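Let's practice the habit of predicting before peeking. Look at the sequence and jot down your guess about where helices and strands might fall. Then scroll down.
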Amino acid sequence: MDRSVDNPRRRPTMSDVARAAGVSPMTVSYAYSQPERVSAEAAAKVREAARQLSYPGPHPAARSLRRGRVGSLGVVLGERLSYAFDDPQAARFLAGVSDVCATEGVGLTLVPITGAPSDAQRVAQAAVDGFVVWTTSDDDPVLEAVADTGLPAVVHAGPGRPGIPVIGIDDRAAATAIGRVAFVRARRPVVLGFPLDRDRIRQLLPAGRVAEVRFPVTRRRWEGFRDAWTDDARAASQLRLAVCPVNHVAEGERFALELLQGDEPPDAIAAMSDELALGALRAAARAGLRVPEDVAVTGWDDSDAAGPAGLTTLAQSLREQGADCARTALGRPPGCPAGHEWRVVMRTSTRRPPGRHGPAI
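Done guessing? Here is the structure:
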C-alpha cells in the first residue's frame, strides 16, 4: 500500500511517483530535470502518477544541492525591512537588482539587519548564491559575515573589503559639484546630512567638530560639500552639518524648520538626499521664506518629486547601479564597466552664479 495515502500529511516523494507510474526513480528525476531523456509514454505515466499523488515536483532544497546553487540572490539591508519599500531611492536600487534577477531566472531574498548579534547568523544561514550589500558603516559586522560565507558579494557605495568590489559613483566629486551650486552667495550654509555612525544621533555640528564619520556615503558627501565651500578661500568653520537620524521628508522638514527659526538661520541648505531637501523646501514655506532668495536648497538623486518641486539636485541612476551590483554578484559582466555617471540638474531652488542671466534650469 502507498504510504503517502496512509499518512496524508507526508509529502509524496519521487519514489512514490516511480512506484505508482511503474518506472524507476531516475526516470521520474529525468522527467523533471532533463525531459528530453524520457520517452513521451514514460513522461505521460509520470505526470499522471504525480497528479494522482499531488506530487508538486522535486523539493527545491534537494534540487539546489544537486545543482550546487540555490537560485536566489541575497540583498543585505542595513535598515528595517520596510525601508526597502518606504525609501524611494532604495526602491529604485532594488528595482535594478530585480531586473537582473528576472532576466537571469533567479529569486531575490531580502536579508534585513537589526543591529543585534543575530545579524551575522542570519547572513550565514541565508539560502542564496551571492550577496548585494546596501551601503553600510565601516564597522558593520555584517560585512565580515558576508565575507565569511565565501559567496560572491558586492557592496553598493561602500565600505570596501578585500575581495569584495564596491559599485557606485564618486560621491566626493559629485558633492563638490552640487555644493558649488548650493553655496552661491551664501554666508550661513548648512549641510542636511545622513547619520555619522550606527548610533544615528541627531545633532548640529560646526565643521571643526565633525570627527569620525563611519558611513562612507556620509563621509564622502560631507568632504565634497566642505571642499566646495572652502575652494573659494571661505573658512571651513562657517559650514555646519545637521545630522539627521533617518532619511525621510518629515525629518528634513523638522530639522530645517528648527534651523530656519533659530539664531543663525541658514541661507543655503545642501541636502544629502531629495527626501531631506523636499523637507527643507516645506520648512522654508512654513517659515514664510522665499526660495532661493532667502534660502537656496539642493537635493541628491533627482527623484520623481524633484522636478515638480523645482529642486536643483544631483542625478544618478540607482536602478542601473542596482542592476550592476546584481550582475557582479551573479558573475556576469558589468553593464557600466567604465563606472557610473552623475550630473547636476539645475532648477529654480538655487541662485544664479554672478554674471549668469536667465532662469536657473
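How did you do? Residues 88-104 form the longest helix (17 residues).
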